[in-house]
User: Fold this.
Amino acid sequence: MKARIITPILFFPLLLSACQNGPSALSRDERQLIKESGDVMRVLTIDDPSDSLILRSISKDFSLKDLQSDELALLSEKLISTVRSPEQDGVGIAGPQVGIFRRIVAVQRFDKEGSPFEVYPNISILECRGPKEAGAEGCLSVPNRRGEVFRYRDIDIKYSLKDGRDTVETVKGFTAVIFQHECDHLEGIIYTDRISGN
Ligand code: ZN
Assistant:
């Protein structure tokens, strides 16, 4: 998610086939992309017709073996380098935005001291509470635009620890908004889809 950009557009979802989203081992292509890309990975954008199509794909979980792999550690570092890079300057990023269709997001934790970026594999949102509230959003994959989206401010997230155990955490405030925006990417949803019909 990008904090500061301009003008909303409507963007209608392409209904792509929802492939299986259970865990499977990282493919050779995925490993290669993770290893061979620079620290700052290329971010897919809806301005590119091919990128725009594949950003609608559904992401899969990591297998237990991949949770403990060097590739996941490297991907985590590169997601953070990418979202923090001066050309992006974002507050969150999801795997599909760098071409890795796995359930992983990096989020800036404004609810923690020092606002660190943290990475969450096999993430999902378990529960949302309270009313939705409007807030301005931008996206690294939707360059130079910004729009108002209604999101919850109190959610429970679930993600996997390195040993494969799942953990549940409550997140509140603007950080909860970032998690909802990034988790949408894992379902092929872009924030502009939510601008109308809230
Ligand atoms: Zn985004």
Q: What stands out?
A: Confidence is low (pLDDT under 50) at residues 5-19. The first helix runs from residue 28 to 36.
